[in-house]
Amino acid sequence: MPAMNKAFTRSLFVYLALFAFAACAPQENSNQAAATGPIAINGAGATFPYPIYSKWFDEYQKSHPDVRINYQSIGSGGGIKQLTAQTVFFGASDGPMTDAQLKAAPGPVLHFPTVLGGVVPVYNVPGITQPLRFSGTVLASIYLGKITKWNDAAIAQLNPGVTLPATDIAVVHRSDGSGTTYIFCDYLSKVSPEFKQQVGVATSVSWPAGVGAKGNEGISGLVQQTPGAIGYVELIFALQNKIAFGAVQNKSGQFVTASLESVTAAAAGVSMPDDFRVSITNPDAANAYPVASFTWMLLYQHPTDKVRGKTMVDFLKWALADGQKLAPSLGYAPLPAPVVEKELQALATVQ
Amino acid sequence: MKRSSDDRRFRIGTGAFAALVLLIVLGIAFELTRQSLLSITKFGLKFWTTSTWDPVSGDFGALPFIWGTLYSSILALLIATPVALGIAIFISELSPRFLRQPLAYLTELLAAIPSIVYGLWGIFVLVPLVRKFEVAMGAKPALGVGMLAAALILAVMVIPFTSSVAREILKNVPSTQREAAYALGATRWEAIKVAVGFGKSGIIGAVMLGFGRALGETMAVTMVIGNAPQVTASLFKPQYTMAAVIANEFTEAADELYLHALIEIGLLLFIITVGVNLLSRMLIWSTKRRAVAPIVTPMVAEEVAA
Questions:
Q1: Is A303 at the interface with chain B, CB within 8 A?
Q2: What is the distance between the terminal CA atoms of chain A, rounded to a whole angstrom?
Q3: SS3 B306
Q4: C-beta of residue B302 within 8 angstroms of C-beta of residue B270
Q5: A245-298: per-residue pLDDT in tens?
Q6: CA B5, chain centre distance (Å)
Q7: Over 50: is that where the pLDDT of A301 sits?
Q8: How far off is chain B from A278, nearest CA to CA, in Å?
Q9: Residues forming beta bridges with residue A120, ordered by sequence position
Q10: Which residues from B are below 8 Å from A175, CB to CB?
Q11: Which residues of A touch B252 (CB under 8 A)?
Q12: CB distance B207 to B104 below 8 Å
């Protein structure tokens, strides 16, 4: 009996010791220079570009076997937070960093647009098979809870020849914080002063109407099974899942159905500021889809680790050239050439 | 000599583990408070009583989330408790012997299903059914998602916890209790009443365990509750819970105050869970006089931001 007790006590102590050891073990420091082996670079941020980023890292590693880039798609907010805390080497975000966020960072942070995305309205109106047309003000009124029936005069006016039912509109928005919500609200705030004043622009906002569903799949699921529902999803999501979506009237009065071309066109007409922090919703171009946005990679202008910094610059150069060709196959709209040109100049300042 | 030193080492060893639990709980409380200081100092007690949740203007109040959490959990409890106790009593007192094990196994299996699976079942099966019911009741607009769907899904998730623990408690009621009842000429129903009365404090513990489970449930609820922060008694309107808002908004909260407000919601959930625990303890104490059956209290079932 005593022997058994002793063995038990001993194992207990071993267990305790292990516990203490695990608690004291040093955390992995991603900024530590890799003395030997491949150059490992960690990044974190937006979920929206995750499929194209992982494809890019994979392809890039094939031609650069000594580089290993890891990306955690934890959300834009998380990406900015981790970049600021310097726990990752680069960040990624669907919305540009605010002035306050830039100030909070320990050094100057540069924004590099990588690809483009669009947001499209999806709906379920009983008896309607042809694509519906929307305008920014009508979408804003629907999401403000001011238009409540599908046969409202404002919707009917945009869709001549379509017999709209008197069904109640069930408004569906994202419940989780999301770049999609940011782009959608950014557009609605530009076209409707009332929306801007009442709701505003952020990844999560205080919606005056409707229900929240989680993720693109949550929205499309709820819209598809609720008669009279309207929601908004990423263009990529709608394309990949073959979900029908409506056309949106752009600034020059054209009804444009979102496509990779019309999203790229939205970026082409915008005058690009030097820091690339620009909203491209509601652009002037006649062929542009109005609810579109860049997604950005975030990089310190003066990285502490020069080897990693150089590698990242080299990777971005590749992503802006060869990488862009991979974008359409995954449903992302590639950047217009002038933007790429300007980004290459900015990349030269990273050192 | 040798033995007594072993005893001492053993006591220190196990004591360290017990202290660890205390430390972790205190650590959680401290860290939650520390990381929500901005919001605590800015909003004070108003945080508990106001209904605005606006990340754009930086104005935060948690009332709709507290309401939604308590309302959905209490509704779930009202639905789940009779069913769970019915299952427990049937299995332990009335079921034919060959059915006992399979039935017990099946109810416990319900507890092993991941909550995301419950959520998907909720979206594709439960919500359309609730919507049909709402249309029949004349609710406008009939969404399906909302408080009723959330309470129902929570009830299904809570049942295995409550019924398993209640069953164990009934099993542990000494057979002398039943024999004594029969000896006095009791009917079967009366004998069961005696057994249930004997295990009352344990059964209350089982119910509170279910309540704790319901308070902290996140994923399944956020998928069916509609995620609209509002304080309303309507069963059909979309509402929101504390755990759901943290899971939904935490990843994208880049602004300091916003982040602190979300963490303060976690703190509130912590405080409410501790409060519910204390309450259940008191309930158990007040009914404990007659009972010897094992006592169970709810765990802190916080699956926040999984």
A1: no
A2: 69
A3: coil
A4: yes
A5: 999 999 999 999 999 999 999 998 888 899 999 999 999 999 999 999 999 999
A6: 43
A7: yes
A8: 19
A9: A233
A10: 222, 227, 244, 248
A11: 75-78, 176-179, 203-204
A12: no
- Per-residue exposure over B28-40, b if at least 16 CB sit within 10 Å of its own CB, e if not: eeeebeebbebbb
Contact flag A168-B140 (C-beta cutoff 8 Å): yes
Residues A8, B252: C-beta atoms closer than 8 Å: no
Strand A109-124 relative to strand A229-234, pairing: antiparallel
pLDDT tens for residues A29-71? Answer: 444 444 456 889 999 998 889 999 999 999 999 999 999 999 9
Residue A18 has pLDDT above 70, yes or no: no
Q: CA-CA distance, B128 to A226, in Å (whole number)?
A: 8
Least confident of A9-23, A47-61, B95-109, B276-290: A9-23
Query: Min CA distance, B246 vs chain A (Å)?
Result: 9
Tell me how far apart the alpha carbons of residues A318 and A310 are, in angstroms, rounded to a whole number.
12
- Is B288's pLDDT higher than 90? no
What confidence tier does A155 reach under pLDDT thresholds 50, 70, 90? Answer: very high
- Give B-chain residues touching A5 at CB under 8 angstroms: 3, 6, 10
Kind of pairing between the strands at A109-124 and A292-300:
antiparallel
Give the whole-angstrom CA distance, residue B173 versus residue A218. Answer: 47
What is the reported pLDDT for A15? 52
Strand, helix or coil at B70?
A: helix
Question: Which residues in chain A are closer than 8 Å to B14, comparing Cβ atoms?
Answer: 12
From A223, which residue of chain B is nearest by alpha-carbon distance? B143
In this prediction, residue A36 carries a pLDDT of 55
- Chain B residues interacting with chain A (CB cutoff of 8 angstroms): 2-3, 6, 9-10, 13-14, 16, 52-57, 123-124, 127-128, 131, 140-141, 143-146, 222-223, 226-228, 238, 240, 244, 247-254
B249: nearest CA partner in chain A: A177
**d(C-alpha B208, C-alpha B224), whole Å:** 23
- How far does the CA of residue B227 sit from the closest CA of chain A (Å)? 5
SS (H, E, C) chain A: CHHHHHHHHHHHHHHHHHHHHHHHCCCCCCCCCCCCCCEEEEEEECCCCHHHHHHHHHHHHHHCCCEEEEEECCCHHHHHHHHHCCCCCEEEECCCCCHHHHHHCCCCEEEEEEEEEEEEEEEECCCCCCCCEECHHHHHHHHCCCCCECCCHHHHHHCCCCCCCCCECEEEEECCCCHHHHHHHHHHHHHCHHHHHHCCCCCCCCCCCCEEECHHHHHHHHHHHCCCEEEEEEHHHHHHCCCCCCEEECCCCCEECCCHHHHHHHHHCCCCCCCCCCCCCCCCCCCCCCCEEEEEEEEECCCCCHHHHHHHHHHHHHHHHHHHHHCHHHCCECCCHHHHHHHHHHHCCCC
Centroid of chain to Cα B211: 3
